[in-house]
């Protein structure tokens, strides 16, 4: 891993105050949904869904191209607020992420119900049944919902 610079080449591509995007990661066993905010941190948009084994390489490349101020990573919990069975896998990913990108601030966010909300959003938007069965799209929308909720809770007044 080398030094990361924004497009201008003069500023680190992550950390610091203001002016950067927030990136959301919905990490899964097979696939990972990724969403990103605009630079003003107002709008959350789906970015992509990629195979989970390629996430760190994807992020390394993305951080070289875009200024990212912070990353949020979904924290799977059960209804009783206990960690879900996938928590150890996601926690291991978070540790690898922090090792690879030690200067990047990371927030963990509760991701309960995001997949259900993503599926409902697909129904509400009129997507065909075939498109609603696209699990990659559900993962991307789930990351977008996580990010949207995070942005609304952390609005800069």
Automatic annotation (TrEMBL):
Enzyme class: hydrolase
CDD domains with a match to the protein in the record: YqgF (cd16964)
Keyword Nuclease listed: yes
YqgF/RNase H-like domain boundaries: 20-118
Keywords: Cytoplasm, Hydrolase, Nuclease, Ribosome biogenesis
UniProt EC number: 3.1.-.-
Family named by the database record: Belongs to the YqgF HJR family.
Role this protein plays: Could be a nuclease involved in processing of the 5'-end of pre-16S rRNA.
Protein name, per record: Putative pre-16S rRNA nuclease
Lineage of the species this protein comes from: Bacteria, Pseudomonadati, Bacteroidota, Flavobacteriia, Flavobacteriales
